[in-house]
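Narrative of activities, Objective 1.

The group set out to show that a structural description can be obtained from nothing but a protein's sequence at a throughput compatible with the screening campaign. Below is one input-output pair from the validation batch, recorded exactly as produced.
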Amino acid sequence: MPSVTVPVPARLEGRPRQGGLVVPWVSVQLGDGTFDFGNMHNTRASLCFVESRCQIDGQQIAPQPLVFFVSERSLEDLTTTEPPVHPECAAYSRRACPMVAGQMKRYRRTPSRAHGPAGEVCFDPGCECGGWVRTPGQGETNAGQPAQRWYMVWCRNFAITVPDEETRRHLATGAIPTGVSIGAKILDPLKIRPVA
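Output recorded for this entry:
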């Protein structure tokens, strides 16, 4: 939770809140009606990549530029698995998100809240998620690891990436893009999260 109240941009006023934070459009809503900030709703994340939608408010980002949050590890090859955001949503998130704002020293050690009773049954029978489904590898590589530096990167174009054959097969069936390759030379990314 942020220690200081972060002003919420007008475009996010209608978004639900949890613990004082605006709930991103891509956050998984659990069976008990709460949200798991650590997991993305795969269908919505996919729409963000394919339709240039903002992961925070779900609206299309037009006109450009798009903003991406990029971890230090991903900055070298200009890739990210984080969907794009509007510039004003990025300004809010860089101060409000505990990980990006540098308030967390480590990634979560425990399994996602979706692994427990809160995530057992989707609360909305009309939801296209079919219930929460664990994505192999998601959240496991960073579990308990020291937090990385985060950067905001502005760009005008990107290419959807598919890193391996198994994921390509899933993508061919209409499944989920896994991230993007940012199509721009980054001269001076804005570091927004110091080393913990």
